[in-house]
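ligand=NAP
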Amino acid sequence: MNNGKQNKTVFTIFGGTGDLTYRKLLPAFYNLFSLFKMPQDFEILILGRKDYTTESYIEVIKPWLKKFTRTNYRDEVFERMSEHLRYLVVNFTEEKDYSLIKDVYDQWGGIQQRLYYLAVAPQFFAPIAFSLKKSGILDEKHSHQVMIEKPFGVDITSAQILHQQMCQAFDDDSIYRIDHYLGKEMIQNIMSVRFNNTLFEGIWNNHQIDNIQISALETVGVENRGAYYDQTGALKDMVQNHLFQILSIVGMEKPLDGSAQAIQSEQVKVLDALIPIKRGKLNEHLVLGQYTKGTSSDIAVKGYLEEENIHTDSTTETYVAMKLFIDTPRLSGVPIYIRTGKRCDRRSTEVAIQFKAPKGVLPNLLIIKIYPDEGIYLRFNAKKPGTTPEVVPVFMDFCQSCVYENRINTPEAYERLIEAAFKKDKALFTSWPQVLASWRFIDHLIDRIKEEKMIVYPYPAGQSGPSESDEMLRREERHWIDEEHG
Ligand SMILES: NC(=O)c1ccc[n+]([C@@H]2O[C@H](COP(=O)([O-])OP(=O)(O)OC[C@H]3O[C@@H](n4cnc5c(N)ncnc54)[C@H](OP(=O)(O)O)[C@@H]3O)[C@@H](O)[C@H]2O)c1
């Protein structure tokens, strides 16, 4: 593949009339364009089956951009960006249609850096890659990168098959696997906070940390993804990818440098060090739940089994709470509690580090708030003002997203990921060894769950999950931490 100097960057979106393209990708391109962050010479080729012309497609996307751009929408910016857009009617399962795509690339000429964004269902990843190769599009003259989004397989075997198929068209270095959590500001900030503060990094170990908690709670249900979700469940939809990304960053050693290779290799070491849950011990480590009808923001909502496209007797989990250990010198013996759930009482993604405490006072607490609030909360102990020596907990609360300037300077995840991709920075993407290590753990766990016929506990929509999840921590004289209750 060509590594020389390119004179044009060409983005090609497969699935150009889909939800991901309208709500995330095109607004991300608009934001980058309006902030002068796009490559100097670029084109965006949008592929779809619908019978649009470039002009009619531009009219279709305008309202989406007005609604979803982060930066102020301006007609004149949109018009300038539209000069770089081209819509092409293509059925991507028809090999003959790839000659139409090739014709457009040939018309643009020069040496191109081509990025193929597959905003399509995963079963199309390999067929598209294969057709791109067969059509001669992936030639040596230009450079080629492909961007795909999870799920990367539904288990380790299917992930390996997908990987082998993709690698017949692209070398692994050209495959950019998106986990949009890695594009979130505060996930990147975990590394900065850890490695740039002796205050934290000096005590980031099993001598000082009592437990770590990673939570990703949502108030929404399965929305219109019922058919997909019922086959998937929270373990595969959230834990295997997003939560394990966070876990690996929280647990890793300082990378040798800021390169993708150095960061990802430290992350993989953490995933490889996850201790599998022993036979017969599942109930001590894992709680599965499924929401029943309840209320969300004071509105009555359906239970999971009444949602569209869900089997009426489904046992798919919409909630997972887990206690994990990693076998590394730094954190061995420290319980890492993770939880994720749909239709919970709040929307919140955060990491909490609870430190060991001297007798009689509350433990120090560090909370890294990832979403929707972004910031850092630190609780420590101080003397109560007055004449008594009483010690009371006090806190510092740095709300990054409360500052207008921070908000407007913080890119959306997809914006950051697209920019990283055309700059060929793979640090924000998931490496193949990471995919492999996380599936290995989850596959083993799912086998155990089936073997031990684990109960999936019901919880009413609008609550924080099944009470068994609280009980798992209570047995160890701990509780789930959040800012209000910490
Ligand atoms: N939506 C999100 O926010 C989101 C977030 C994360 C990940 N994802 C993932 O991204 C992928 C796409 O999601 P989505 O929500 O955008 O799905 P979607 O709305 O169903 O869009 C799929 C797109 O693929 C096109 N398509 C399907 N078969 C085609 C064919 N043979 N030839 C040409 N075009 C074809 C559809 O075109 P037609 O309009 O002609 O049907 C549509 O543009 C999925 O794998 C999803 O899991 C989505």
